[in-house]
Amino acid sequence: MKMNTKKLGLAIGLTSILALAACGDSNDGADSGDDSSGADASSLSEITGIDGGAGVMTAAQNAIDTYGLDLALQASSGAAMTEALGNAINNEDPIVVTGWTPHWMFATYDLKYLDDPEGVFGEEESIHTFTREGLAEDAPEANTVLDNFHWTEDEMGEVMLDIQEGTDPEEAAANWVESNQDRVDEWTNGVDQVDGETISLAYVSWDSEIASTNVVKTVLESVGYTVETASMESAFMWTAIAEGEQDAMVAGWLPLTHEAYYEDYKDQVVDLGPNFEGAKTGLVVPAYMDIDSIEDLK
């Protein structure tokens, strides 16, 4: 990923909304390895990626080199990647994309991560909240909310799915906040109302970070802040926080995805810790493709 950081309840639980189970076995498309199905992995010429500065793209290029794959890495955007994925699935064509969870595509499509025996994509990641230096002194109430903010796969998944189904991100966040006031009260515990002070939040336009940022925005507004949000690529997001041009972000993927940015700026930003745990990145294919490992892409 990474540039530019749990209640579905309605019968869609943790595994169905973000489909960590999509990494498992599937019997769908048992004959999909046939040339006639159009899903023969040997016909692939590229990996469909997202923005070029994302950490998952760096890892994907490393995978190409490590496994000796004769594939090009095609940079695009998160939206373009999911559109290409959907088109391929509609035709049962072969495709491999840079993927990550949490992401709504695992709830929409039957997908699986390819095994990574060389460990190029690392283990599970956490999404951290970072602020500029001095925010705790300048805006202590906002800093407390940001420090308290932590949610689960189901919770994030509900907002992401609502947005994917056509709801405006701010409206989806407001709906979730209204329906989960007990959870929000945990984040605002001990926080006093303020009078319109401005707080700026930077984020990368990944579905997970759109959901998180808009929920935090809504909560900060509920305690009296005027909140400005700015979408940008990962490198610019980290730079903006480090240089004090933006106040905070809830979109720092560690230890792998944003590793390089963290190493560059860790002495200029304040890490408030994880707001989400159990994130994952890797190469993803439709379940009907008869391959299970990155090695199978050779």
CATH class of the largest domain: Alpha Beta
Structure classification: alpha/beta
CATH architecture label of the largest domain: Roll
List unreliable stretches of 5+ residues: 1-38
**How would you describe the shape?**
globular
Signal peptide: 1-21
Domain ABC-type glycine betaine transport system substrate-binding: 44-178, 198-298
Organism: Alkalicoccobacillus plakortidis
Keywords: Cell membrane, Membrane, Signal, Transport
Structure description:
Pfam families: OpuAC (PF04069). Residues 44-178, 198-298 form the ABC-type glycine betaine transport system substrate-binding domain. Residues 1-21 form the signal peptide. It is found in: Cell membrane. This is Glycine/betaine ABC transporter. This protein has 298 residues and is of the alpha/beta class. The protein folds into 2 domains: 14-123 and 281-297, Glycine betaine-binding periplasmic protein, domain 2 (D-Maltodextrin-Binding Protein, domain 2); 126-278, Dipeptide-binding Protein, Domain 3 (Dipeptide-binding Protein, domain 3, Roll). Helices cover 37% and strands 20% of the residues. It has 12 helices and 9 strands. The protein has helices at 14-18, 55-67, 78-90, 105-108, 135-138, 140-148, 153-164, 169-179, 181-187, 207-222, 234-242, 259-265; strands at residues 46-48, 72-74, 97-101, 111-113, 125-132, 198-203, 226-231, 248-254, 269-286. Strands 3, 4, 5, 6, 7, 8 and 9 form a 7-stranded mixed sheet that branches. Strands 1-2 form a two-stranded parallel sheet. Helix 2 links the parallel strand 1 (46-48) and strand 2. Helix 7 packs across helix 10. The longest helix has 16 residues, at 207-222. It is globular and about 60 Å long. The chain starts with 13 loop residues before the first helix and ends in a 12-residue tail after the last strand.
